[in-house]
Amino acid sequence: MNNKIIFWIVKLVVVVILVQTLFFKFTGAEESIYIFTKLGIEPFGRIGSGIAELLASILILIPRTTLLGAIVALGTMLGAIASHLFVLGIEVQNDGGTLFFLALITAVCSCYLIFHERNKIADLLKLKI
C-alpha cells in the first residue's frame, strides 16, 4: 500500500476517534460527566479537552498543520491515558476499557503522524506568534 494512503488512513483514524468523542463531551453525556467529575475538573476539563480535540482534528486534516494537530492530539491523549492509569482505571463504567484503548490507538497514530511530519519540526519551531 502506498505511504500516502497509509498516512491519510492514519489521519482519518485519529480524526474519527477524536470527533466521535466530541459529541459526548459537548452534549454532556453521562459517561463524560462521570469521568471529568471523578477527575475533579467538570465541566471545564470536559469542555476544554473537547475544544483541544476539535482543534487537533481540524489541524490534522490541513496538510500544512498536520504536525501541530498531531502534537495537540498526542498531548490530550497522554492526559487521557494518565487519567486512566492513575485515577479512573482502565475500565470506566463497564466499558470494557474501550475509552482507554481508543486513547492508546489515537496516541500511537499521533506518534506516527509526528514521525511522518518530522521534517517540518524546524519550521514549526520558527513560528512567530
From TrEMBL:
GO CC annotation: membrane
Segments traversing the membrane: 5-24, 44-62, 67-90, 96-115
Subcellular location(s) of the protein: Membrane
Protein topology in the membrane: Multi-pass membrane protein
Record InterPro entries: DoxX
Sorted UniProt keywords: Membrane, Transmembrane, Transmembrane helix
Name of the protein: DoxX family protein
Any Pfam family hit: DoxX_2
